[in-house]
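The freezer alarm interrupted the setup, so I double-checked each line after restarting. Inputs confirmed:
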Amino acid sequence: MTLMQTPKGPTPIPTPGPTPGIHPELSPPTDQPFFTRQKRQLVWGLLFLSPNLIGFLVFTLIPLVLSLILAFSNWDLRLHNDRKSAQLAAAGESPEWVRFVGLDHFIRLFTDDNFWYYLGNTLFFMIGLPIGIALSLISAILLSKDLRGGSLKSWVIIFFGAVTIASFGILSAIGLGSAGITILLTGIFGLILVGGSVGGQTIYRTLFYIPNFTAGVATMLLWKKMYNPVNGPINDILSEPVDLIGRTIGQLPQQVMNGILLLMLGLGGIVIHLCATRLLRLFRDGEIGGVSAILGLFFLIVAPVTVVVFRWLPGMTYDISVLMVTVLGLGLAIARVGIHQDFFATASEGVGSSMMLSVGGMSAVFGLVGLGLAFHHLPVASADGLTPPNWLQDVYWAKPALMIMGLWGAIGSQTMLLYLAALTNVPGELYEAADIDGASPGQKFWNVTWPQLAPTTFFVVVMGVIGGLQGGFEMARVMTYGGPAGSTTTLAYFIYTEGFETGRLGFSSAVSWTMFLMVLIVTLFNWKFGNRYVND
Amino acid sequence: MSTTDPNPPIQRGSNLRINPLLTATWMHLLLSGVAFIMCLPFVWMVLTSLKPLSEVGLDTWMPTTYQWSNYRDVFDYENPDINRRGIQFARFYWNSIFVASWVTFLQVTTSAMAAFAFSRLNWPGRDRVFLMYLGTMMLPGLVMMIPNYQIMIELGLVDTFPGLILPAAFSAFGTFLLRQFMLSIPASLDEAAEIDGASKWRVFWDIILPMSRPGLITLAIFTFMGNYNSFFWPLVMLKSESHYTLPIGLMYFDSSRGQSTHLLMAAVTMSVVPMVVIFIVLQKYLVKGIQLGAVKG
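Predicted 3D structure, all chains:
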């Protein structure tokens, strides 16, 4: 600290001798003995750093340490405040001090059902992560094609197509005598189309990115109004088609729905099979190691099968089904990995890619099973007419509603921009080679594009998970107040309500440190496996 | 596929096997369709902001009469008619811009100086300190909120603008971003200047700062937008209405005048439009900055 307060440092006379470069290893070793020189460097360094460093100490490092201390204390504003102290003093008692309570908060936390529920909510919101990444990737791929590369003819055709659509809209609106909204919307669509065909990908990129860029309280209030079940536009649009679907489905026999459910389960099985086959092939080719393959297979199999077993085998408790499937899955995975490996890889190589494959497959399976179940339950649910959901006011729909809003902002996010940058860096020769081999577009995507994008995907997933663990505060505070019945309360919102509304500062700090530890685990995972994966 | 295409398209990641014209048309239709859907909420927002109160709940999107006075009413917080009473919108606007500008100025200044220390000066312990900075980028901001709030109480800065500005004025991310920029500036430039007798400060001020202008602009935009939109810290810090920033003010509007959706949408429109304009004008810097800022490790 004394060094930092040195007023000016040494006089800025020309420094003698060769100037050291940026890299210490490049500077000549003869510089080292000059102690004054090193000291001068330190003074300059600290002078430049000090404004930032002081702020960093006061607003990051000290609070961080304080927060850790708080997490083990029982500081509670309802117990420890001036009024309470005054009351106690008036009664002749000494005021109660903040005490050290050890691990009490953490023990309470882990036995608290609410905490697990809120953690579950936080993780549930992360289902949106792979969907958002997939959408970003698709839009990035679409945007990466040079749409202006064609001849003038294509512009002309697109332009006239847009004009035709626009004028068709206008004419039909006039002919039908309905409100001008048709004209307006068709006009906007035509405008975007013309703009896009003239301006190329920049126009689309801008339009895709704007929801993300403007995301904040303003757009959340906008969505809150749109989700209003009584007079919001979303349910206005949905009510008729939903009613039609309800009436149609009500007439179908239950067997059809059961068939759809079975079909979805079968599709889920196929997805698991495909992912497992790919994992094993990667393992055999030496791209991923034994531990990675076992972990990947394990995650791929256990979670979906557990759900299925728990749901459909009679007399199953949750613990037994988890245990049973864990043993089964682990055994199966180890048995499969016991096969011959053509190329050798260290055991933990490629954990990132195998985890991504298995988690992606798992999400897909859950999506399919969920869809099947939805169809399965539809005839009963739509017995007396189907109405659109109450969105933010419905315990089951509040989370999906917020996720839909999140996806609106996630399509054109920084993920898309990163993918766009990564796509331009894919060497064109790879595609040429694939063309010569007669690869189909799908094969080219899975064997050229996807592996080339893997570092970006890994980065995006890690950042998404880190962000997701801390996320959901603004949405909860602005749109739902964490409700209904806590169904949109994430860890971040929980920390806020405990700390700033209830006043349990100690407990709130403990929750925030628990969250921090989870983030840390993901970060360490990233450091351990990310760099290696990114570098190859 | 004709091999005699006079104007071969750049085939980076593209695969135009079918008739290119047809593909391009479909692609345009698809992309503009998605872009159109993305725009719909904004269309509804603008249309609703022009409706009279009586039409707010109707399922027609178009207002029958365009009530432009909504945009004026938002500012009119002393209107006796409760349905047409606005909020101190001008004040919230100003507060947001004031706070965001100060944070931007301070953050860019401190980050640039720190980045210079990390990229251009060679002092003992530099890399260890930098690693520590990098590590704090992973810290969830929530962990520091409660102690920071207590610190603000101790300093007497609760419900003041300095209390809002100071904690946001120092950023590890900004330091990191600018360091990346500065590392790409050739070292020979400042070495030459030093041989000519320039002090470290002059090297920083006359060579490095002008050279890293794109980086400074990128960081400035990010910081400004982030603080224009920031929610958590203002929410816990601000108590009196005259200090509200725009996000807090909008939320207050929603909770206190729940029925006036048309006025709320006018306010939302007015707070979104500047962001859209800034994005369109400055997107070159933003896109670069996002792609650069992500190159970690």
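Quick read of the result. Residues 221 and 278 of chain B are 9 Å apart (CA to CA).
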